[in-house]
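Hi P.,

Sorry for the delay on this. The queue was packed all week, but I finally got your sequence through. Input first:
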Amino acid sequence: MALTPGTRLGVYEVTAQIGVGGMGEVYRATDTRLKRQVAIKILPSSLAADPDRLARFQREAEVLASLNHPNIAAIYGLEDADGVKALVMELVEGPTLADRVAHGPIPVDEALSIAKQIAEAVEAAHDQGIIHRDLKPANVKVREDGTVKVLDFGLAKALEPVSAGSTDATASPTITSPAMMTRVGVILGTAAYMSPEQAKGRAADRRSDVWAFGCVLYEMLTGKRPFEGEDVSDTLAAVLRGEPDWSGLATNVPPAMVILIKRCLQKDRRERIGGMSAARFVLFETDLVGPASRASDASIGGVFARYPAAAAAVLFLAGAIAAAAIARSVMQPPAVASQPVARFAVPLGPDQQFSVGGGFPVVALSPTGTDIVYVANNALYLRPLDRLEATSIRGIEGKGPDRPAGPFFSPDGQWIGFWQSGYLKKASVTGGAPAVVYKADFPFGASWEEDDTIIFGAGADGIWRVRSDGGQAENLIKVDLGQYARGPQLLPGGRTLVFTLLTSQSGPAEQASQNERAPGQRLDQLIWDDAQVVVQSLDTGERRVLIEGATDARYAPSGHLVFASRGSVFAVPFDATNLAVTGGRVTVAENVAHNTGTGAAHFTFSRTGSFAYVSGSFSRPSRGIAWVDRQGRESPINAPPRAYMYPRVSPDGTRLAVTIDGPQQDIWILDLTTGGERLTRLTSDPADDRYNEWTPDGRHIVFGSRRGGTAGLWRQPANGGAAERLAQLPDRRNDFLLPSPISLDGGRIVPTLVFRPEQDSLRENFDLYLLTLGPPAGLAPLLQTSFSERSAEISPDGRWLAYQSNESGQNEIYVGRADMVKTGERSPVSSGGGQHAVWAPNGRELFYAKPSGGLMRVTVESGSEWKASKPTQLIDGSYNWTSGFGGRMYDVSRDGQRFLVLKPVESAGPTTIVVVQNWLEELKQRVPAR
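Then the structure:
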């Protein structure tokens, strides 16, 4: 069926048709959820109407989706909407190779570059057992930057059998004529690029792709197809019995390429090059052989006659690699120093999802490249690559801020470092209780060095080092106000660090308002895209910028820096002695998951040369907003899913104030009188504005911010206008003030001060302050102990103060007289844990969140003494009641009968780790060190 612009298929909105063929109709579409352009291929009706074929296609598509290579267009998923079955794929801009060849032969240097990339893509697919079956110029695109993308991998098999198609041999899709079917099988591929075995109806294997590759290479160099005919039958006859016009190859085509094409186009596949590794080798070595002098020398005999030694060497090496490729399929490979590159996908276990948090990568490879550790389902999993399943590491689990994060291996591979509950910990790979290394709340990446120390980034607190067996941490590198450091690693010699440095004031996200950004450009995509990779001497303190617009650089023993930028991984040759980048960046992996808010890129490589990365995209947690009554009945609010935090309903119940999470947090107002669809931005200062609270008259929003570099409370008109500072704490660069609901008389706020003790600057603590709005106005300490007290709220009658404290070893809710809490007189309310209490508007109930999820309730008796019932659960834990940032994530309606809640919105994240073995050898070839 034809789709018109504006048609919706699930979350995809069609914008234009971009192609039609036997494989289906192709459309450009917008992914409205992830805000990216995709290609939508509508599956043929013959497939969609056949349950068996559809099921088989589903299985094949799952295999194809496992392909992750910079030169292969990715498959994102399947969509089934309103009876339309569609395949969602990466949208690749640029002309097809067929478009390029239509203008004539492609220059040798350019053709060589394109051929290398095609060969790498096909080899990567073959390594996973996937055969293209329909390789042709129309299925290859060349982007403006020269990057090649091979399209439609394996779809010929996934879609077979298909109905009769065109007899045009030049552009015919997968051959479908019933007259050409045999008892052996069904002819697949395009006639002009079809191997002799496919033309005879025999099964295709990787050598069939080698034949098609030879056809494509010949066509690039000559501007003509090697086998042509007036119709499909004539073309197939030429394939089976004819020979290409070898005189059509120009004299400047290197003999090695001529020989390669001839070996690809051997009609007996037993005499053909056995795999793409041989073709790739020859292409990368063509500079060793000079150009042919005349067309007649393009024959094998001519090449041998003119360049006997070079041609013989190329043929010998290509033949040896081809023989090895065939032998690998029937016998165990011998133990040799140089092994072929192998790519394969490691899927997560059933019902597993990656657990992504903060600035932590979710995957790590052991130094030997034999084991993977990853974070999923709030636990650490260890997967030896010689086993089919991963096992969880016992004793390392937890929800929310207590889940493990950021795993990394010790140099001997016997320990795994990670963060959990504000501590840097380590655990043995063989099991046993984890050990605490150091208290550290917000580290940004780490490396375990050969001297048994752990170096980690701490954002605004610079870079630190601590021994793996514990002790006092040492501040190695300090950063300036507004700067953040992550991903440190010692370079060879142990006296220079390479790390990522972000200077927030200079980034476009700090300079531009939302209205000044490009259409479709999200704020959370800007900040870390402008970070720098730097090196700094531990002896002199000298710092040098190596790479702009990059994060998470890591030194590879091959003499390269490998780093991430905008969802891809790149490499540059690097002189570790002179601390200099000696060449341009080259893409080594695309579609690599990364965290736009912290710069964390989810890739890793081992000392022995294996490489692994998470393929896909992690989006920020999206939440919907809803009302839930005391019986658990839910009434969703019509608001687009966003990373909402701290919802607060206005005193008149007509508006909501929310913080929307991102690298820059801001406050937005949702107008409920318009059906909930009108979401208006209130704050846009480059600093984080969050923890919004209404004033009792509903005219202003009070919030916390570090505008000007100091912790402060601000007040801004809810309908827009300039903000005024209510209070500030000067010279406290890492602190933050969190407001609480304003007392009903409008005169008092009990904010929480989030601070870092001088004796332990990597550990956050919380104290309560009292802000009198005056006159006279003033901010003074209210409750300061060695424990953390926070989230205080004054009762509606102004007599009581509810707050949470961890003095018992876990967070619990306490209530004391508002005028006496400073003396420590208070009564416990919760048992078994409690967080973020809120009063009912009539003051007769107090609600709080359970750490394990759910809303609890106690009734309050009136009188001069505190009396309350035992806690009972009111609503279950299927909502986001708490936040690791410390603010309350729910609110209560003015009549006390409904609760404003945030509900997680399901989003399918990545579920595959791509592993590349012997990757360093490939890196040396693609990015030669200088």
